[in-house]
Amino acid sequence: MRISKLPEIGTKYEIESPKGDKVAVIFLTTGEIELYVLEAGAEHPSVTRLTSEEARRIGSILTGAMLTVEREDVEVAFSDISDLRIGIHMCPVSERLVGKSIEDLGIRKRTGITVIAISRRGQNIISPPPETVFEKGDLMVAIGSLDQIKACTREFR
Fold first, then answer.
1. Which end of the chain is more exposed for a tag (fewer CB within 10 A), N or C?
2. Rounded to whole angstroms, what are the CA distances from 130 to 72, 127, 142?
3. What is the DSSP letter of 153?
4. Please, where are the H alpha helices in the chain?
5. Residue 81 vs residues 12, 113, 128, 131, 132: alpha-carbon distances, Å
C-alpha cells in the first residue's frame, strides 16, 4: 500500500492487486471519500464519491461485518461466524419507564437484551450502569438477538 499526502486535498491510499487492478481511496479534507478503481488494461478508472457513512458500510462489508438497516434497527452478521446475528435496536423511552432504573426494570433479566447506550438531551451515556434512571426524552440503544429485541419492544413499549 502506498500512502500519499495531497496538499489541500486530503490523503490517498493506493493498493495494486496481483492481477494489476488498482484501487485508490482519497480521504478529502471536506470529509468525503473518493474511491477509484482502475482494472488492469483499462484506460480510465471508475470513480465514486462516498459520504463517511457510506464508506463505513463498505468497510464493514469488506471486513466481513455485514450490516442490515431497517428503520431504527441494525443487524450485524459476521461472515466468519455464519449463524451469528446481532441486533442493535434504538427506541424512545416510554413514559412508564421514566423515573425507573435499568436494574429496577430488570430489562436484561426479563428480555435478554443489554442496554448499551442512552441518548439524553444531546449527550450520550455509553455502557450505562444498571442504576441509571431513565428520564423523559431519553433514547435507549440496546443489543441482543432479534427475538430478544422483539421481547423488549413488547415488554417495554
1. N
2. 23, 9, 13
3. H
4. 52-62, 102-105, 107-111, 146-156
5. 33, 20, 28, 34, 33
CA angle 99, 102, 104 (to 5 degrees): 70
Whole-number Å distance between alpha carbons of 68 and 75: 5
| pLDDT tens per residue across span 10-38 | 999 999 999 999 999 998 998 889 999 99
Q: Which three cell numbers stand for residue 8?
A: 489541500
Q: CA–CA separation, 81 vs 89, rounded Å?
A: 21
Q: Find the largest Cα–Cα distance for the chain.
A: 65
b (16+ CB within 10 A) / e for 120-142: beeeeeeebeeebebeeebebbb
Residue 89 CB neighbours (<10 A): 22
How many residues in the chain?
A: 157
Name residue, grid cell 463505513. Answer: 56
- Judge residue 102's burial from the number of C-beta atoms within 10 Å of its C-beta, 0-12 exposed, 13-18 middle, 19 or more buried: buried
